Every structure is written in structure tokens, then in C-alpha cells.
From TrEMBL:
Residues 101-218 form the OmpA-like domain. It is found in: Cell outer membrane. The lineage of its organism: Bacteria, Pseudomonadati, Bacteroidota, Flavobacteriia, Flavobacteriales. Keywords: Cell outer membrane, Membrane. This is OmpA family protein.
Length: 230
């Protein structure tokens, strides 16, 4: 039986003590603490198993895991707050949290829609987008991707151009309302990415949509790093 290496046994104990000290230095929410311990625990296990790592590398792995998990938790909490605000202010809009991002789907049921073969925003659509503009200004540290999609009615080339103009219409109105233009990226896919069957009127209606993805930007990440250093 292979004898235990006393030096290696002391390493995880030291790292656990370090972890405990760091946790005690800062008040954390349950979600943040869970991410913190999970990442650090994984790093400690990796350090025990990977005997080829130096002690400095093991400690670095733990601290790196701690920082990454804590920054991720701070960003996630901020994005959760924003998603909740969107759901409260715009209850008819489909809102989904995907990893760090917030995905919003605007279709005929959620208050943003267009007349056939048109890309101009009607008054009802503008009212919905105004609510989003207020929230985007309240949470300024994000990048925004706007995607245009259509059903399969008409020529494929025409639908591709139409999806572009519809996405740009949403972007342009948000900019007009005061959201910084540099935050936006516009993408358009025409009829190439249906979410529902185009064989039914309901499916066509849902495929005529504009999707908005809100992602944390580098400034929010810097703020999160600065917060854990306080």
C-alpha cells in the first residue's frame, strides 16, 4: 500500500483554511456563496488529485476559482434583477435567462408586430419598446443584440431584407429613446430560423418575431471584480 504523503495532506487543509478566511471577509448571498464554494471545492480536489501541480499552482487554482465564481455570481444577480424588471413591466413578453444572458422574444402576442411586408413600428409596438428602453437605461452595462426573423410567406430574399429592416426599426427606436447606439448589434435571418412550424397560421405568427439578447459588458465585469476587492 502506498504511504500517504503528509505534505500533500496538509495542502488541502491549508487551502480550506484560506477559503474559510476569504468567505468570512465578505458577506455573500446564498447563490454567491454556493458558486464560491463549488468552484473552490473543485479546485481543491483538482489540487489533491493532480500531484504534478506545485503548491503554488494549487493555491492559484483555488483563488482563480473563487474569483471567477464570485464575479459570475455578482453578474448573474445583476442580470436576474434586470430580467425580473422586464417581466414585471412587460408581462406579455417571453423572457428567458440563458447562462449570463437575457433573451426576449417580441412577436404579435407580445405587443411588437408589423403589417404584412412592412417594417414600420405601429403605436402599440412603440409603447412596448418604450418600456424596454427605460429598463435598458436603468441597467446600462450591457450589450444588446437585436435579431430579425420572418415566416416563409413570400420570396426568401425578400424575407431576408424584411427581417433586417424590422430589427433595425426596433434598434433605431431604442436609440431615439436614448439608449446608446454603440451597445447594439443587429442581425437578421429572414425565414431561415423558424421556431415553430410554418404549416399553421399560429406558427407563422410566432415566427414573425424580433429577438433581443442582453449580455453583460466588460464594464459590468470590471465592476464585479472591483466589488470583491472592496
Amino acid at each position: 500500500m502506498k504511504p500517504h504523503n503528509i505534505k500533500n495532506l496538509k495542502k488541502p487543509l491549508y487551502l480550506i483554511m484560506l477559503l474559510t478566511t476569504l468567505i468570512s471577509c465578505k458577506s455573500m448571498k446564498n447563490a454567491e456563496l454556493g458558486g464560491f464554494i463549488g468552484a473552490a471545492g473543485g479546485a481543491i480536489i483538482g489540487g489533491v488529485v493532480g500531484e504534478s501541480l506545485s503548491e503554488e499552482a494549487e493555491i492559484g487554482a483555488v483563488i482563480g476559482g473563487i474569483v471567477g465564481a464570485t464575479v459570475g455570481s455578482i453578474i448573474g444577480d445583476r442580470m436576474d434583477q434586470q430580467a425580473k424588471k422586464i417581466e414585471e413591466e412587460m408581462p406579455s413578453v417571453a423572457v428567458e435567462r440563458v447562462e449570463e444572458d437575457i433573451n426576449i422574444v417580441f412577436d404579435e402576442e407580445s405587443g411588437v408586430y408589423f403589417k404584412s411586408n412592412k417594417h414600420d413600428l405601429n403605436e402599440s409596438s412603440k409603447e412596448t419598446i418604450k418600456k424596454l428602453a427605460v429598463i435598458l437605461q436603468e441597467y446600462p452595462n450591457s450589450n444588446i443584440v437585436i435579431e430579425g426573423h420572418t415566416d416563409n410567406v413570400g420570396k426568401e430574399e425578400s424575407n431576408f431584407i424584411l427581417s433586417k429592416y424590422r430589427a433595425q426599426s426596433v434598434r433605431d427606436y431604442l436609440v431615439l429613446l436614448g439608449v446608446e447606439e454603440e451597445r447594439f448589434t443587429v442581425k437578421y435571418y429572414g425565414e431561415s430560423q423558424p421556431k415553430y412550424s410554418n404549416d399553421t397560421l399560429e406558427g407563422k405568427s410566432k415566427n414573425r418575431r424580433v429577438e433581443v439578447t442582453i449580455s453583460p459588458n466588460e464594464e459590468l465585469r470590471r465592476q464585479a471584480v472591483a466589488q470583491i476587492k472592496e
